[in-house]
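Example 3.
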Amino acid sequence: MDAHETRRLARFAAVMRRNIVEQVFAAQSGHPGGSLSCTDMLAVLYAKEMRVDPANPRWEDRDRFVLSKGHCSPALYAALAGRGFFPEADLSGFRRIDSYLQGHPSLKDVPGVDMSTGSLGQGISAAVGMALAGRLDGKDYRVYVILGDGELQEGQVWEAFMAAAHYRLDNLCAFLDHNGLQIDGAIEKVLSPECVADKFRAFNWNVLEVDGHDLSALDGALQAARAAGGRPTVIVGATVKGRGVSFMENQAGWHGTAPKQAQRDEAIAEIDAVLAALEGEA
Amino acid sequence: MADRMATREAYGLALAEFGADPRIVVLDADLSKSTMTATFQKVYPERHLNMGIAEGNMMSVACGLATCGKVAFASTFAIFAAERACEQIRNSACYPKLDLKVCATHAGLTVGEDGASHQCVEDIAIMRALPNMTVVQPCDAESTRLAIRAAIDRPGPFYIRLGRMPVDRIYRREDCPFQVGKAIVLRAGRDVTLAASGIMVHEALKAADRLAEEGVDARVLDLHTIKPIDRDALAAASRETGAIVTAEEHVILGGLGGAVAEVLSTQAPCVLRMVGVEDTFGRSGKPLELMAMYGLTAERIVEKAREAMAARDGR
């Protein structure tokens, strides 16, 4: 990935971050911390990696994406709007009674959403089903999924990991958004999933460990995943909850809290400075 | 074909019969020889996916397949389908209205010797509370076959409740007026109505014979579809017979009897009595012993019919 491409993705991600803050602020409801930590993964997927057609969201040969940590819908909606699945202006309706942008992703309501999620642990299983369908139909689409690290406490995740390896689903690529925090605090304190990469390896997945905010590294991992040969891939991304908004970073308290006006202004100013710097480089 | 056949066996045969449709995939949770999905597997091994003993994952994987245009049949025992994987069915299938067809076998007390842990008598109440869900319990081989055909043709999630125990044929092949949501009038009586599903349809027919010996002309409804329930057939039964007895191999809380009570009390009031499992668990035993012990019998239906007619007539 050259500097120009990296800058383009960084800009896409910064606009996403702006839209995440604005959605949660407008709704005074939602989950900013985990949305900001998986933003760079979604930016690389939707702005570069995935084969999708915003004009035809149900195109049967498209790559699929499942947000298994469905509460981070503001990040997914920001990515979909950024890619043109629906107007950016609609994001202001997030979680409102007259909007189609449901609190958690709903495939019947939101163009570009491939699976309804929100109950943790189920999205990864649905992604396994999509990968199996691609295999059965002889299609070459790929299936991507983002899991939270707290989500690993759901036993169903490990049932899905077992099934994906058993069926040798190398068309499946998962990200772990490993920000280390969940609602009640540090995952190590709440209920540690311990040595997650080792566990994934023990389940016979191809495991890649990267900085979850390094766009080039994420892109490189995605390309490596394509060559996994008979095994599903999990990209363990070390991330920072609240990334890009200094006062939210590494704070479990920002898991599901909306910013007030002054906090919103401070966050937007910080993101706009990043955007301005990116423009300056161009 | 054998005269007696369990509905689970008819299910396996129906899957094999209709299985040439490439949209059909069948998932099982290590019970394929018991649920009879193995019958499909023999013909279409590439579209039979064993997901191991992990029912929650199986339901959500099936839903992922359904988002890609598959009609996904998922089978295990009713207790693990409707109860262990209930929330997966709700959130992964019903909310997005996907083509998940849950075919739950070994429902009710007639599981027999395995005992209460495996005797699912609450699934109808649970499944019919879910928006978008269709709930069907066929009573014999041919109606099972047509229920599977309907599940393939009709979009959205289905719950089909099947039994372990062989039962007599009620309908001849190609001669069953099965339609989702339409009760079948098996006897056209006018004195009292016996409305049943599954194996209790057989008991209701026996009860009607006994009532006939007493000069009572009983109507018998095969209420195979519990959701959406046939409001018109129930309103007609209420109006024309004034006394209804429901019979189900399920607790009398929120199941077939509950569904009928909702319609009658809000739309067409009449005397109602329910035959089913009281608010209790089952136990180990042979299927017919259990039916006798828990009152799932023609005799109990006859008693309740007499009671209902007496109440209707102010006796």
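DSSP finds 13 helices and 14 strands in chain B. The first strand of chain B starts at residue 4 and ends at 5.
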